[in-house]
Amino acid sequence: MAKLILCDVAGRSGHQENSASMSQANASTVTEFFIVGFPGLLPKYFPLTAALFLCIYLAVLSGNSLIVLLFVIERSLHKPMYIIILSLSLSDIGFCTVALPKVISRYWFNDGYISFDACLIQRQLIHYFGTLNSLIMMIMALDRFLAICYPLRYPVLMSNRTMKLLIGFSWVTAMIAPTISLMLTLKLPFCGPNMINHCFCDSLSMNQLACADASLYNLITFGVAMFVLLVPLSFIIFSYASILVSVLRIANVQGRLKAFSTCATQLTIIIIYYIPRFVVYITSTIPNAQLSSSQRIALAMFYSLLPPLLNPFIYFLRIKEIRQLFLKRCEQRNCVLCSTVTISK
């Protein structure tokens, strides 16, 4: 009888080991994912969607590259505020270069397949640039806070060297939160579904495809995302509230308008960046307020692509020095062209 029990236990343990090895093998069966994009989009609209994303990408690339070029050739722009703008432009170029080519390929050539490793890299960089933008905007708020609330001490407190150190620190530390989220995802098994219901790979879309309960991982990822979002936003709100109090104390009306005008540019960028993100993050955790897949994707693409698209135009329209330097360069180019035509005649 004892022998029979021992044989039964050994048989069960052997069966469990086989099951574990089979499940481990199944967990590694997914070698690629397919980027679905917008789930309800009809195929006849695929070329139009691809063309739209291509136009957005080219506009972001050209507009932000122009900002970078102006900064490189104009030494007068080598100031703390413009170092922030340069960093934000580089981040916007990086994000769109990571996010858009694959979805353009998906809708133009019906090539939505992306390898498992490439999806992980894309997801890591997507969250990296999102975190980086949040940190840059916090530094932007700090810069305006010091410039308006402590104008006499500003040149000492915020030198070019200090700003470069802050920006460099943000570019390095922005990788921490996405790496935590990535390490959690790597613990999940992926053994079957491979359709990414998004225009690019991200944490939520990948975790939904796991063959195990990912609720704990999603909760931790949500907590990390909220930390990345709320800590900079809290400082931004504090900074602009302090700026508002300082501006209202200015007796000179013209001085008030100038201060408000300077802050309005950055506040516009910050509002466009933060509010739609909050809607997506909050609705993903509240059962009765969840958005449909198409609504969530559309909102995510809105807050991801609109700021990089609008930022260069906002800089040119709202920042006088950038606008004047751009017009000056255009005039010089026209003069060179005119003289070239005259000589050729």
TrEMBL record:
<keyword id="KW-0297">G-protein coupled receptor</keyword>
<keyword id="KW-1015">Disulfide bond</keyword>
<keyword id="KW-0325">Glycoprotein</keyword>
<dbReference type="InterPro" id="IPR017452">
    <property type="entry name" value="GPCR_Rhodpsn_7TM"/>
</dbReference>
<feature type="domain" description="G-protein coupled receptors family 1 profile">
    <location>
        <begin position="63"/>
        <end position="315"/>
    </location>
</feature>
<dbReference type="GO" id="GO:0005886">
    <property type="term" value="C:plasma membrane"/>
</dbReference>
<keyword id="KW-1133">Transmembrane helix</keyword>
<keyword id="KW-0807">Transducer</keyword>
<protein>
    <recommendedName>
        <fullName>Olfactory receptor</fullName>
    </recommendedName>
</protein>
<keyword id="KW-1003">Cell membrane</keyword>
<dbReference type="Pfam" id="PF13853">
    <property type="entry name" value="7tm_4"/>
</dbReference>
<feature type="transmembrane region" description="Helical">
    <location>
        <begin position="165"/>
        <end position="186"/>
    </location>
</feature>
<keyword id="KW-0675">Receptor</keyword>
<dbReference type="InterPro" id="IPR000725">
    <property type="entry name" value="Olfact_rcpt"/>
</dbReference>
<feature type="transmembrane region" description="Helical">
    <location>
        <begin position="257"/>
        <end position="276"/>
    </location>
</feature>
<feature type="transmembrane region" description="Helical">
    <location>
        <begin position="296"/>
        <end position="317"/>
    </location>
</feature>
<comment type="similarity">
    <text>Belongs to the G-protein coupled receptor 1 family.</text>
</comment>
<keyword id="KW-0716">Sensory transduction</keyword>
<feature type="transmembrane region" description="Helical">
    <location>
        <begin position="135"/>
        <end position="153"/>
    </location>
</feature>
<dbReference type="GO" id="GO:0004930">
    <property type="term" value="F:G protein-coupled receptor activity"/>
</dbReference>
<keyword id="KW-0472">Membrane</keyword>
<feature type="transmembrane region" description="Helical">
    <location>
        <begin position="48"/>
        <end position="73"/>
    </location>
</feature>
<dbReference type="GO" id="GO:0004984">
    <property type="term" value="F:olfactory receptor activity"/>
</dbReference>
<dbReference type="InterPro" id="IPR050939">
    <property type="entry name" value="Olfactory_GPCR1"/>
</dbReference>
<feature type="transmembrane region" description="Helical">
    <location>
        <begin position="80"/>
        <end position="100"/>
    </location>
</feature>
<feature type="transmembrane region" description="Helical">
    <location>
        <begin position="216"/>
        <end position="245"/>
    </location>
</feature>
<keyword id="KW-0552">Olfaction</keyword>
<dbReference type="InterPro" id="IPR000276">
    <property type="entry name" value="GPCR_Rhodpsn"/>
</dbReference>
<keyword id="KW-0812">Transmembrane</keyword>
